[in-house]
Amino acid sequence: MTDADRPTDGPHHDAAGPIRLLVVDDQYLVRTGLATLLRAAPGMEVVGEASDGAEAVVLAARTRPDVVLMDIRMPGLTGIQATERILAQAVDPAPRILVLTTFDLDEYVYGALRAGASGFLLKDAGPERLLAAVTAVHGGDALFAPAVTRRLVEAFTRMTDTGRADPPDAGPPPPALTTLTGREAEVLRLVGRGLSNAEAADRLFISEATVKTHLNRTMSKLGLTSRAQAVVVAYETGLVTPGGAGAG
């Protein structure tokens, strides 16, 4: 595990007991296959299966899972809309949303990250990668190095800037940054540029713990639920611009 993959933001779930999972996919074979795999894994418990976004919202409120495996493209209520509703209605601690997608560079994935999903995973990633991803997001770890999220967000920010419509179900515009202190804004800018907490600490000559404190305060002030969502906000508010300097 690299520095970029270490615990980042938000409250960690209680490690005691199995990881409670809700599996959401409109394709029966995919959904049951995922649920069967997860049920067979030690330390994991499938508390529900949903065939669409609306059912996912109801089951999430009823079963209070730790992690939701969310199909992104579904008829009716999409995975993006379901993610927004689940997180808006959740009792603390909110579940982590892990988006399942066929394509990694997908405007729907961008919309889900914008809505507060903790990360995304390709459906063909394989059992070991799936179980590792579930464990990572449950523990509060970054699913990907920050630069991976940065590349995805930057790609779709560029598309929007050149006249492309907003991503499907993109939701409300990002919050203004006027509530942030200068240091909090600087930490958000570095996170948006793809730096890990450790790299941002080196750049600012402060401790990694202080970076985490600033980032947690920033996320609280802006109502954000994941590091990926913070990267989206950094771009959409203009704090970071596509093509800007990276972590080098």
From TrEMBL:
Domain HTH luxR-type: 173-238
UniProt GO MF annotations: DNA binding
Single GO BP term: regulation of DNA-templated transcription
Stretches assigned to the Response regulatory domain: 20-138
Modified residues (4-aspartylphosphate): D71
Source organism superkingdom: Bacteria
Keywords: DNA-binding, Phosphoprotein, Transcription, Transcription regulation
Record-given protein name: DNA-binding response regulator, LuxR family
Organism the protein comes from: Streptomyces lividans 1326
Organism ancestry: Bacteria, Bacillati, Actinomycetota, Actinomycetes, Kitasatosporales
